[in-house]
Amino acid sequence: MDQRTTLDSNEKFDSLLREAKKNGESIRLLYDDGGLQRAEGRIIILDLEALHPSIVLDNDCRIFVDSIIGLNAVFRDDYSEC
Questions:
Q1: 81 domain-assigned
Q2: What pTM was computed for the model?
Q3: 20: domain CATH number?
């Protein structure tokens, strides 16, 4: 049986995003943009206080935090693969 790391039911990716930006780490994302998409890069803008929190990667890709399904192999608890 496959196992994967998931967030707790009320946990969000905020702390992982803050840590990655602070450390200048490259991140790998799986997010839902009307279909599953992948993105990779360093966070240059992290706006968690906006009405619709988002990040901007160093390749100018803007991703809404609520659309993120997986971050560096950590997944939302409500995500199930098909």
A1: no
A2: 0.87
A3: 2.30.30.100
